[in-house]
Structure formats: structure tokens, C-alpha cells
Specification:
343 residues, five-stranded mixed β-barrel, 2 domains, single chain, Spore Coat Polysaccharide Biosynthesis Protein SpsA, Chain A, globular, alpha/beta
């Protein structure tokens, strides 16, 4: 089936991780779970050129210099970088990547740039299964094995098993309330929608032409008028801005006929809040997850993140304390989803 081309989506603003994440340097470009940034970790997951082609990065044009610097640090010199003149959501971003693919039949592994994956071997096995399905013309989404009745994610309902592995998708479910989420866990065969996909470029573009033809037309015009400077491709701005703004789920996956899911338990997190970062962090003996300099007396079960100043605490429990530049955030754990209201 040839090499798989990674498509790394890096247009997010990361507002839920303010004040560390800002529009100028959103969370994917920060070292939140490792000494490497989330973006670098994502790129390096598919670094083996025996299985993967050079990656295609789709990102905000204002982050071009950040991307160049971080790719250089990661030792990646062959990436193709598509620089969006404006944000139009994931479906148009994937469309221009599909049009820039090495071949129309190229297999594309689409990944957000700001997710954490702990078990890379499990991810690799899921990629191999998904590639077989994509080779048969399926649009494949990775179904994350749920660890609890999470209300912050959409869900995928799996139907009958397929001969090549995985399952046909019965339906997609919007973010549920807790009772509905628990009911899906109790019923089984329901998975979190993690926003990771694998399909042939041509299969995605065909589905886009059927279900969102205006989007495909805009993508074609934007790429036909694109300006290329080295490894940077700038889609034509007016044409790209004319595209409808929609996610891949709404534009294609929920409407297409041949959609499959490959369930996988791989220690996945979208690191979508400070609470999520605490959950996947490595706590000290008092249950504190710390990035930066922290001293305390009797403080426990806190998340402390500082990029400059030393944080000191006495007797506090269950807090999120983030210090970045001139801003300090203090919020009880469990309420960090509201941080985006301040960003």
C-alpha cells in the first residue's frame, strides 16, 4: 500500500490552557508532558521513513517561524508546511493536505498536533489495521477506548466487525450528558472520538465532493493559486477564506457511507484542560504534578505549572496554579474548563 503520509493539524489556539498557552504560542508548541513540545512529539511518532512519508503540516500562517524552529529541533527536514491564511476548521485543512499529498491514492494519517499518546505500540497496531481498511476504500476513525463516562468528548458507536479488522460505524454521538455517557459505556461498543483518521486522499476528496462540494471547490481554487516558497505553501487567501468552515466530522464522517472505526487503548488524552494535564502527569509523593520550580509545606493533589517564577504554597489541596509571564491562574481542580472564558 506504500508509505503512509502523516497529516498534522496544528491550527488550534489552545485557549483552555491559558495563561501558558496564548494565540502567539498555543499549547501544541509547549513542552507540557515532556521536554519536547506536543507538536514535536506528534511529528516524531511517525518519524520512521520505512513506513511513513514526509509529513504534511497544516498550520496558521502566523506560526510559520515556530514550526520551522521546532521541526529543526526535532531533526525533521522534509516536512511540507501548508500555511492557512485564516482558520476554516478541520475539513478544509484536511482538504488542502489531501490535494498536496504525494499521490491521489496516498494513505493519509490525520492527527491533531496537541494530543498525548502513551502507548505507541498500541497506536502502531491500530495504524496497521486502519491502513488495511483504508486500502479497501474505508474512511477510518480511531475509536479511543473510554476510561470513564466523559462528557467532553463525542462518541462513536461501532456496528458489525469487518474482515480486515475494526468495525463499521453505526453513528456518531454529540457530547453527551453524564447519564447518556454512562449508558454508552454500559452498553459497550462505544468509543471516544479522538479526531484521528486514516484514509486515501482520493477517498476523502470524493466524499467531500459529494457531501460538501463548495468546500472542495474552495480548496481546489486555493491550492491551484497557491504560492510555494521552499517547503512552505501558502494557499490563495481569498479562495481559502471562501470555504465553508466545518469540522471533518460534520462535513464528511457523519454523512459518508463507508466509515469504519478501529478501537484502540493507547493512553490517549487531548490535553484539553489543566485538569487533563494533572490526570496524565507524574505526581510526587504528595500527589502534586509539577512543571517548574515549586516548594511547599503540606500541599497535596495540586497541579503547579510555572515557566519562570518559583511557586510556594502551604497547606493547599486540589488547586491548579499556573504562572506564566505577568499572569497567574488559580482555579480549583474540576473547574478548569472555564479557563477559556478568561483567555
Amino acid at each position: 500500500m506504500g508509505l503512509i503520509t502523516p497529516v498534522i493539524l496544528s491550527g488550534g489556539g489552545g485557549t483552555r490552557l491559558w495563561p501558558l498557552s496564548t494565540p502567539q504560542r498555543p499549547k501544541q508548541f509547549l513542552p507540557l508532558t515532556d521536554e519536547r513540545t506536543m507538536f514535536q512529539l506528534t511529528v516524531q511518532r511517525t518519524a520512521g521513513r520505512d513506513s511513513f512519508a514526509a509529513p504534511i503540516i497544516v498550520a496558521n500562517a502566523s506560526h510559520a517561524s515556530l514550526i520551522d524552529a521546532q521541526l529543526a529541533e526535532a531533526g525533521v527536514e522534509d516536512a511540507l508546511i501548508l500555511l492557512e491564511p485564516c482558520a476554516r476548521n478541520t475539513a478544509p485543512a484536511i482538504a488542502i493536505a489531501a490535494l498536496a499529498a504525494p499521490e491521489p491514492e496516498s494513505l493519509l494519517l490525520v492527527m491533531p498536533s496537541d494530543h498525548a499518546i502513551a502507548d505507541l505500540e498500541a497506536f502502531g497496531r491500530a495504524i496497521a489495521t486502519a491502513a488495511k481498511l483504508a486500502g479497501e476504500g474505508w474512511l477510518v476513525t480511531f475509536g479511543i477506548d473510554p476510561t470513564g463516562p466523559e462528557t467532553g468528548y463525542g462518541y462513536i458507536a461501532a456496528a458489525e466487525p469487518l474482515a480486515a479488522g475494526g468495525h463499521a460505524v453505526s453513528r456518531f454521538i454529540e457530547k453527551p450528558d453524564r447519564a447518556a455517557a454512562q449508558a454508552m459505556l454500559d452498553a459497550g461498543h462505544h468509543y471516544w472520538n479522538g479526531g484521528i483518521f486514516l484514509f486515501r486522499a482520493s477517498a476523502f476528496l470524493d466524499a467531500l465532493g459529494t457531501h460538501a462540494p463548495a468546500m472542495l471547490e474552495a480548496a481546489n481554487m486555493a491550492m491551484s493559486g497557491a504560492n510555494r516558497i521552499g517547503q512552505h505553501i501558502h494557499p490563495e487567501a481569498t479562495a481559502f477564506a471562501a470555504s465553508p468552515s466545518d469540522s471533518i466530522d460534520y462535513a464528511v464522517m457523519e454523512k459518508a457511507e463507508k466509515v469504519a472505526t478501529v478501537p484502540v487503548a493507547m493512553g490517549w488524552s487531548d490535553v484539553g484542560s489543566w485538569d487533563a494535564l494533572h490526570e496524565i502527569g507524574r505526581p510526587d509523593e504528595a500527589g502534586n504534578v509539577v512543571r517548574g520550580e515549586f516548594r511547599h509545606i503540606g500541599a497535596s493533589e495540586n497541579l503547579i505549572c510555572s515557566d519562570r517564577v518559583r511557586v510556594s504554597a502551604i497547606g493547599v489541596e486540589g488547586l491548579i496554579i499556573v504562572a506564566s509571564g505577568d499572569d497567574i491562574l488559580i482555579v480549583p481542580r474540576g473547574q478548569s474548563q472555564n479557563v477559556k472564558l478568561l483567555a
